[in-house]
Specification:
The structure holds 2 protein chains of 2 kinds. Chain A is mainly alpha-helical. Chain A is built from 12 helices and no strands. Chain B is built from 8 helices and 20 strands. The chains are: A mainly alpha, B alpha+beta. The structure holds adenosine-5'-diphosphate (ADP) and magnesium ion.
């Protein structure tokens, strides 16, 4: 690539700066409000300089078992991510490799399952889980989130598997390896960026999901976003705690994305088949 | 080591048949080359032997066993792919080890075998590199090394030299020949390059359009081609072909009349349409009064060092002659060209079949 000119550089950095401001402002507001003493929370113009306090965080963990809700969220999000990425990858592999003229239709059919409006199915889910005794358990949420995450993973991973040259799998077959060994040691490592992308999408969707979590859980399996909203009651809205809770919720997502990022490398198949 | 046997093997893709019932025997320890123009079904045939393509019909055996339904991993074959197909996420050492994993050897034995082959192929310095960090020639050797560590019963090569430059190709060709002499493993080798085929093969199988045209030693396919296709495909520059008719014990072509060589006496019918085939080195410069000579005009000369190629026009025919470079005629000269009767091949113009046997 050519070295960008100064003008190009200025343009790029200006756009980046604007994007940064747009995306970071809410996060700044959450972070600053979470350490702002309640009395000056809604001062106008907003107080920029104040004595930070950790009161909201203390309240957050003292008044309700917020640590447990974070744990629930983690369990549900990681569980659904693992489940979806595993089964989604296997399905995607089959769709990518089986040559059949209707295979694209199968792929689309799977993706279409992600298109239903959640509100339409939340009541049936409620009834089903109540009947089988899974209401208010992390398993219920793992199942529900996976029904949304698996189609997405299938769709994403199919694209990545399509990019892995079949010649490599044939080489492995002639080298004496069976299907599972080939998939595990040749194909999947070369589709690792796809795994990372899928995992990020699955995790973030499960971590942020609100509607199902609200309807299908109670005090036992409640997730962090629902717990945060419970500080919004009819008589009082405890903004400080909501902000503190929101900020805590941000952290695992950021950590997870940064962890996955190191797998997002390009050109993994370079040097294999020219 | 094993022999390979194909009996009436057919390959269809959907309704399209691309390999039409071929029979082939590769003896134990033999180096057999499948040779033919691009698209004639060489790769398809090789891939059926490897188990990467289903056999649509017929019998395929390796050793004593019918392997039509046997998975590639259980066939005891190793293959070098045209594009090498190295595992990009593994180092050279891991690439070679990966081929040994299924054998369940001890770590020590794995290391010993890998090091031995790496030494033999001069890969020892490269063991920690990944394929992307290797040159084309090095990748080719890794691909060979990966196939060799398994000490397979059968080696399959699909145009292994086609991605190398000319100099490297000659060098690696020689290495492959040496390796075969040393290991004595059965080899089935695909190429469209006749020089590779002639230099490497014990036996050449010439294919066209999914059929086998001739099977024979390099000498046989060169000096006794079964048909016009083989005659023109083997040899460079190719054999000159001149359509002619048999009249009064002569082969008469436009601007040319040759005596029917004695070995064809009694095999030809008066008036039969035949094609005269003669290699460039079967033509020589001669005095006009010599028998079997014809007047010719030199159009172009190509100097090759020891020899020169003359592009000749004899009547309406364009012929190539290979003559000693010393004293070659200049372009534009009118000369007389002589046809060596022993070098003449005759083919049935209609069927293309050789009339020599
Ligand atoms: N997967 C396939 N589907 C349909 N036709 C194919 C396929 N693979 C090869 N062919 C056809 O089979 C013929 C032989 O191909 P191939 O064996 O690759 O030729 P070669 O190796 O001699 O150049 C070609 O006409 C090719 O188009
Ligand atoms: Mg080919």
């Amino acid at each position: 690539m050519n070295k960008p000119s100064t003008q190009q550089a200025i343009l790029v950095y200006t756009l980046l700066g604007i994007a940064l401001i747009v995306f970071m402002t809410p996060i700044y507001l959450i972070a600053s409000s979470s350490v702002k003493p309640s009395p000056i929370m809604f001062q106008k113009p907003p107080a920029m300089i104040f004595e930070p306090t950790l009161d909201h965080y203390r309240d957050l963990f003292a008044m309700r078992p917020f640590g447990k809700f974070i744990g629930n969220s983690l369990m549900v999000a990681l569980g659904s991510t693992a489940f979806s990425v595993f089964f989604g990858s296997i399905a995607a592999y089959a769709i990518s490799r089986i040559k059949h003229k209707r295979m694209n239709d199968v792929a689309f059919w799977i993706l279409s399952m992600r298109m239903f409006p959640p509100i339409a199915v939340v009541v049936p889910y409620y009834i089903i889980f109540k009947t089988v005794g899974l209401l208010d358990t992390p398993i219920a949420l793992i199942i529900v989130y996976s029904t949304a995450n698996i189609p997405l993973t299938v769709w994403l991973m199919k694209g990545f598997f399509d990019e892995v040259p079949t010649a490599l799998e044939e080489a492995a077959a002639v080298d004496g390896h069976g299907l599972i060994s080939i998939f595990w040691k040749v194909t999947l490592p070369l589709a690792a960026p796809g795994l990372a992308v899928s995992a990020v999408f699955c995790f973030i969707f499960s971590w942020n999901e609100f509607l199902f979590a609200l309807m299908l859980t109670g005090s036992n399996a409640q997730t962090a976003p629902v717990a945060v909203m419970s500080f919004w009651s009819s008589d009082a809205v405890q903004w400080g705690r909501i902000m503190a809770g929101s900020f805590v919720i941000l952290i695992p997502g950021v950590v997870f994305v940064l962890t996955c990022q190191r797998w997002l490398v390009r050109g993994l198949t370079m040097g294999s088949v020219k | 080591m094993s022999e390979i046997t194909l009996r009436n093997v057919i390959k269809r893709y959907g309704a399209v048949e691309v390999v039409h019932g071929i029979d082939l025997d590769v003896e134990e320890g033999e180096f057999v080359v499948l040779l033919g123009p691009s698209g004639c079904g060489k790769t398809t045939t090789l891939r059926m032997v490897a188990g990467l393509e289903d056999v649509s019909d017929g019998n395929l055996s390796i050793g004593e066993t019918r392997v039509n339904e046997v998975a590639p991993k259980d066939r005891g074959v190793a293959m070098v792919f045209q594009n090498y197909a190295l595992y990009p996420h593994m180092t050279v050492r891991q690439n070679m080890e990966f081929a040994l994993k299924p054998l369940g050897l001890s770590a020590k034995e794995v290391a010993r075998r890998v090091d031995e082959i790496a030494n033999m192929l001069g890969l020892s310095e490269l063991m920690a590199r990944r394929p992307a960090q290797l040159s084309g020639g090095q990748r080719q050797r890794v691909a060979m090394g990966r196939a060799m560590v398994r000490t397979p019963d059968v080696f399959l090569f699909d145009e292994p030299l086609s991605n190398l430059d000319a100099k490297l190709r000659t060098q690696v060709r020689l290495e492959i020949a040496k390796l075969h002499n040393r290991l004595g493993t059965t080899v089935l080798y695909v190429t469209h390059d006749q020089v590779e085929a002639m230099t490497l093969a014990d036996k050449i199988v010439i294919m066209r359009d999914g059929h086998i045209e001739q099977v024979g030693t390099p000498e046989q396919v060169y000096s006794q081609p079964d048909n016009m296709f083989v005659a023109t495909f083997i040899g460079s520059p190719p054999m000159n072909m001149i359509p002619a008719q048999v009249r009064e014990r002569e082969l008469q072509a436009n601007g040319l009349a040759l005596k029917v060589p004695p070995r064809f006496e009694g095999r030809l019918a008066e008036g039969q349409s035949v094609t005269i085939g003669i290699r460039p080195n079967g033509l020589s410069l001669a005095g006009a009064e010599m028998p079997n000579a014809a007047p010719a005009r030199v159009e172009v000369t190509e100097y090759l060092g020891n020899e020169a190629l003359l592009d000749l026009r004899v009547g309406p025919h364009e012929l190539i002659a290979e003559v000693p470079a010393l004293g070659r005629p200049a372009p534009g000269t009118e000369i007389s060209v002589q046809f060596d009767p022993d070098a003449i091949h005759l083919f049935d113009t209609e069927t293309g079949a050789s009339l020599s046997r």
